């Protein structure tokens, strides 16, 4: 190595070298890395009066700017949602489209998958239980499978994506059969017909559960048009078969059950087709006209050694818990309202020897379900921010010096604050509109005075629950899942305890107060939970990348 001049002259010479090797160094640590790459060692720099390479790097860093061949671009921190926010808003609404269409269409056409207002209470209870059990049983499995599948697809590793989907389908079906068997034993042998009609509940449970398992790739890959197409196909089958059966003179109850089953089978068929297209189909690719015949493309992995599924399952336990507890919380107050309604009415609707534990509460159901519709536009609002979160973090972290982690913490807190302000404003706006038009909305849905009272109270609960959902999705981006599951579990306990007390002391419709108060707890507790880790910039650095 040639001798270098001493003092500032040495730093000047090395600054030119560093600028040629890496003109976009962010701090003295990166300068030290470049110096070591070109052969500068501690023993050498001591000959020129420096303690070590890092001391020399501190002297070199300010001089690199003068020798850059092109100016370093000034970073623009993405503090606001970028262009395309309107598109992202509607995409977020489409993400829940099948839920919305099924819900609205039922109230318009008597075909709600939560049970129809035109069905007898025993049949409506059985259908509602089947749907609730299906969502709770598969909610966590779907969340886990979508998370792992997204991870492997980002690596373009289809074999492992197929492995996760296949294992999730297998164990999901095992879970469905186990729950169906347990429910059958409970309702037929231990508590004969106490929870509705067994066969009807099991059929709806299996149909809903199978659909939720098959639709994993669509949610994982965010195929919004596919969700829209699947919902339209299901509605077409449902209402088409209902019209045909009505025309054929089939009793309305039988026609409703058959048409809902046909609609769900259509939804399952569409989901299975897209599962094959997105996961199992191999697309052939030929060289383009601009590619030479010897052009070499990276080979995609074809034969891989999959990890032990038990290890993946262990890693996914927080998501499995969160996904199932989410639906358990959402329906806890409804089950309480059904239970109290059954206790109040006794055994009037069934034989004297039977015991009724649950009776479908139509008035309560309409009020709560119509309030939940507010979650759909609020999902679109938070989707604009959440969708851009990872890209924004990536850009910021590329610019941010590692020696200044506090800057990232401040940026993350600002981003979160802007998101929450938007969700609060949108939530208050939709709540106000809902309260203003409450009579017209409930009348349109076919509800009564009880439905109206439940709807107005439930709007408050839905507003705070939307705050929790925004915090939950934000936290999931940082893999902070166990905390969310614990919050939800506490919310379920509070929901059931409060709903039972209010419903038994007043009337079944007061069960909505359990949902409202527990939703307020979830909204406020989730805000505090987010603030426990947004200030930990070191954690955010690693999880964001």
Morphology: elongated
How many helices? The count is 21
Largest sheet: none
Q: Which consecutive residue ranges, at least 5 long each, have pLDDT under 50?
A: 71-83, 106-111, 347-353, 541-545
Estimated helix fraction: over 70%
If you average the pLDDT, what whole number results?
Answer: 79
| Through-space gap between termini | 38 Å
Approximately what portion of the residues adopt beta-strand conformation? under 5%
Tally of DSSP β-strands: 0
H/E element sequence: HHHHHHHHHHHHHHHHHHHHH
Please state the structural category.
Answer: mainly alpha
Q: Whole-number radius of gyration?
A: 29 Å
Assembly state: single chain
How does this structure look, described?
The protein is mainly alpha-helical. It is built from 21 helices and no strands. Mean pLDDT is 79; it is low at 71-83, 106-111, 347-353 and 541-545.
Features:
single chain, 545 residues, mainly alpha, 21 helices
Short description:
With 545 residues, this protein is mainly alpha-helical. The protein has 21 helices and no strands.
Would you spell out the secondary-structure blueprint of this structure?
Layout: H1 8-21, H2 28-37, H3 42-46, H4 53-64, H5 85-94, H6 97-109, H7 121-154, H8 158-190, H9 198-214, H10 216-220, H11 224-247, H12 252-280, H13 309-345, H14 362-372, H15 375-399, H16 405-436, H17 438-445, H18 449-476, H19 481-505, H20 512-531, H21 537-544
Helix pairs in contact: 1-4, 2-4, 5-15, 6-11, 7-8, 7-9, 7-13, 8-9, 9-12, 11-12, 13-19, 14-18, 15-16, 15-18, 16-18, 16-21, 18-20, 19-20
